[in-house]
Amino acid sequence: MIYADFSYYKDTYCGEMAEGDFKRLSRSASAYLDSVTLDRIPSVTDEKIKEKVREACCAVADALLRKEQRDGIAAESNDGVSVTYVTTSETNANERRLYQVVVLYLGNTGLLYRGVE
After folding, report:
1. Sequence-separated contacts (24+) of 94-100 with Cβ below 8 Å
2. For residue 23, is it within any domain?
3. Is 71 left (phi over 0), alpha (psi -120 to 50) or beta?
4. Alpha-carbon torsion 22, 28, 100, 44, what sign?
5. What is the pTM of this model?
6. Chain centroid to CA 58: how far?
7. Alpha carbon of 45 to those of 50, 51, 58, 70, 97: distances in Å?
8. Rg of the Cα trace of the chain?
9. Domain containing residue 92
């Protein structure tokens, strides 16, 4: 299930990504949200939380686009044609940043709770 459509992304979230990119990345963003919330989102009935989920989906899609645009490159130099690629620790930092985006929107909703209910 995709949690935000392009019209929401453009009109409410005020995103700047192209529609084709959003359609592709919103699917990955929604899958990521399902993963970190242990598939709890479909059972949400509270409209305020649903709105936060839509915002989180848009924010994660934006973060995925930025990550994709870097494409594993940490630094480039044009004079000597030097390219430095991302290390494992930088990849882990990118994953932490992605999770921090989710926490910003869903941190106080209970959807990220990992304990036993």
Report:
1. 94/67, 97/63, 98/32, 98/60, 98/63, 98/64, 98/67, 99/36
2. yes
3. left
4. positive
5. 0.82
6. 7
7. 7, 11, 20, 37, 28
8. 16
9. 6-106
Structurally, how many domains does the chain consist of?
1
Q: Six-digit token pair at 10?
A: 């453009």
Instruction: Give long-range contacts, CB 8 A cutoff, 24+ apart: 41-49.
Output: 41/1, 41/3, 41/111, 42/1, 44/111, 49/109, 49/111
* Residue of 31, 93, 29, 34 whose CA lies nearest to 55: 29
The answer to whether residue 55 is domain-embedded is yes
The alpha carbon dihedral of 100, 102, 104, 110 has a sign of negative
In a domain, 10, yes or no: yes
The least confident of 16-25, 36-45, 54-63, 81-90 is 81-90
8 A C-beta contact, residue 102 and residue 95: no
Sign (positive or negative) of CA dihedral 41, 44, 48, 51: positive
Q: What is the pLDDT of residues 41-80, one digit of tens each?
A: 999 999 999 999 999 999 999 999 998 877 665 556 666 6
